[in-house]
Amino acid sequence: SQSYTKTLQTLIETYEALTDQDEERQDIQNQLMEYGRDNLSIFGQMAFYHASLGEWNDALDAVNRYEQHPSRQTALSLSLGLLKWQLLELTDRKEDARQFMTQFASKIDSPRYRLIIRHLGGERSEKELIQMAGNRPEKLITLHTALGLRAEALNDIKSATQHYKEALGSYLDDWNEYHLSIGRMTALRSSR
Length: 192
Known about the structure:
mainly alpha; 76% helix
């Protein structure tokens, strides 16, 4: 068990240290996915990592790999469900996105995620949703990350950047959504 943990940690550290241009990065990612196939959080982290770089299809692949392993409803599974919807929108699969979200919304217990889904589905206004989040960092980061991705799907870069900035204002720097927001802000700023 200690050997497994050490190997997994080494792979993660190596992966994170490599840049997108490093040829061995894909090989390390494949090793990570294989070695950690029973550790669902790796798939979740990979999904958010690829999304932060705008690698929508790779992020979607990681979410799909996560979903192949049935699990109970967790913060990660809820975040990945919300992310998957946005990824389908970002890859221009609008009908798939709508079908997925209808199915996803019917299975979740979290009031916070149901509210976000209602807004993204057009039932709630953005302003109303932000007010409902109050000053709760965990609600704000989830909400603003989803709104940022939604704005990107609608090609509203100014709004997307503002939402990612608001997500960073949560200071929850150990959350996947925080790192996604940093990556997206960096990418959007460099594309100007």
